[in-house]
Write a structure and sequence with these properties.
The complex is a heterodimer. Chain A is of the alpha/beta class. Chain A has 14 helices and 15 strands. Chain B has a seven-stranded mixed beta sheet with strand order 2-8-7-6-5-3-4, sandwiched between helices. In chain B, strands 9-10-13-12 form a four-stranded antiparallel beta sheet, covered by helices on one side. The chains are: A alpha/beta, B alpha/beta. Chain B: One of its GO terms (molecular function) is transaminase activity.
Chain lengths: 401, 385
Amino acid sequence: MKWHEILVRYGEITTKGRNRNQFINRLRDNLKSTFKDLEGMKIRLERDRLYINSPSDDDMNALIERLPDVFGIQSFSPVAECATDLEAMKALGKEIVADLNYEGKSFKVNVKRSYKKFELETYELNRVIASHVLSELPGMTVEMKNPDIELRVEVREEATYMSVDVIPGAAGLPVGSNGKALLLLSGGIDSPVAAYLMMKRGVTVEAIHFFSPPFTSDQSLGKVKELSQIVSKFGGKIRLHVIPFTEIQQTIQQAVPKNVTMTTTRRLMMQVADLVREETKCKALVTGENLGQVASQTLDSLAAINAVTNTPILRPLITYDKLEIIDIAQKIGTYETSIIPFEDCCTVFTPANPKTKPRIEKMEYYESFTDFDEMIAKAVRNREIHDFPKKEVKADFDDLL
Amino acid sequence: MIYLDHSATTKPSADVMKAFVQANERYYANPASLHEMGVEVNILLNRSREQIAGLIHTEPEHVIFTSGGSESNNFLIKGIARANTHRGKHIIVSSIEHASVLETARALEKEGFHVDYVDVDKHGIVDLNNLKAKLTKDTVVVSIMHVNNEIGAIQPIEEIAKIVHEGSRAFYHVDAVQSFGKLPVYFNGELGPDAISVSGHKINGLKGTGIAALRKRTTIEAIIHGGGQEMGLRSGTVAVPQDVAIAKAARLAEQHRTENVQQYIKWRNAIHTFLDPMEDVYVLSSNEGAPHIVSCSIRGIKGEVIVNAMQRQGVIVSTSSACHSKDNQISHVVQAVGVPDGFARGVIRISFGQGLTDADIEKFKEAFSNVVKQVRGEIKTHEMA
């Protein structure tokens, strides 16, 4: 035995008032579904923290590796446990530090004595444990401010807990604690990052993707599925709605002047998305749009696109610089997939000079000659639905390797 | 013929050949292509990379497929040295490195790098104090091999890593071409090397296959520029069947390592026991060294003569290193470890690999005894036929 359990500190949840239990229970459920593969894992809830343990060492290590991806966790510490007994504490303290690369490091013991009846006072206990560790493990210096190794000892009546590492969590709120929204997922760099940021604030994400075969390939759809799979590791399930969009897109090309096809395309996407949103009971639409990045992302353009619906359209990336977005994409592991160069439906018919300041009245006028409603309803009806995370289907190369 | 020159190269295993042929027949598309055939091959390439990464404990993105050990050594040493000149321009190598490390260091000298050589003792083990003394704040690369290819000396790479990491900001590169499949070869965080070279054909894989691996994200420069394949570090259409072949060879080598090594140790120790009492025979290798390499010399006799005489009896051994076996020089390794007078030109190497039997080792002993008798004039050559 080494690590007895993992102490998980809640993120912002602790500041929530009466909804607190709802948040904590959501976090527990998310942990259960995220770590479904780790059988035997147990979760114990307390007011300010929860504890996870598993009888398997491998599972404990897997937990330590994967916990930083779960939202709603401020930080966590693998914790060892011993009896609230001086000799046991000294022994465990030494065992934990001995495991680290301690030589030449600075060291400190930080005792928190919740069990006030314990024979030694905090200061005494600090000194006794520290001097035991220092004499058993030579080569460390004592440093009160910012030591390399801080051995935290928490003395409670039922047991004493010790840990040395505080590993930062992903912070945010447990996914699902803030409702559900529908994300327009293109396959580029931005939209998966938008999904991640929404999840960070506790929103369950469903995704909608516009697919225009034969102009866009199965591989480009495969890429979107892969992105959904990657993003799903940050909290529960993602349902992906794939909309057959070819007919609408071809119609647009004939229906409106070339320089506003893109604006119309976006407006129709929003209408399709809004219908799906209604069916799926999502409360908002989410896009990866960002101010000024491309022609469709001017304020005028956003206004023209927005005009088709009253549903809130959330744009978590609106103020981000491209480099900031790329940083997050790399951190969450979507970047490499996003930059694989496949055409998506937005890049198939790109006009040479898209209008950067489309006017709403004009857009409505151009579009008034075509009845898109039936096409939209049909596209929504004929959508394909995929759920993530999917079990990985690996091509069978085992005989080769 | 009994082939005892596995340190020069090995015979590709049937499984590796089969995988190579199948990969060529079925997965010949370019993994960089967008079409589904390319995508499938790319998955196969990724799987090969993951398999190697798993074996040596690093991340797949830190595994670069190359054409072999020499290219890996060149790339890792030059690539890291050139990309980190802001840290300094000092390189340390041991005096018994493979030519592809020594000559790389010499080439970098021409670019303005300063190269220091660490001494070795008579067993070919680097002098750690000497290494410590030579480290400076300008040292960027330390390259010290795992197992020496001529005499089988094993270097204490974790101790070296500790010294390098504590005493400098240098990257520690290990040429593991001779050790992979015989000793555990893997990254171990700060406690181990930062870069490792592996060759396919030494482990029953194919010629022209190799791996250059890094422990973590490292500032490194490409040598081969072009389309940005292999994470931009080695351009050129990726040779996926070759990469499949080395992934397979590496897995098999690691899987059978323990059982193979047990046999090698038995044979090595038996040959040492056989050679030790022989007059006029000097043994360079030791029971502390690599399990698969025996190195010895007969006084006054050139290595080439022994190789020829052994061959006539159906046993293939080699002079100390195949690389410069033809230029008739005393090997730098033999010079570095210091061999008694009269033995320096006669060093031969016996190296084991898969497919050998106890009987083959007996046959070697018999042949060697005969050769010794021959050179002493106890048997006339024409009587031998």
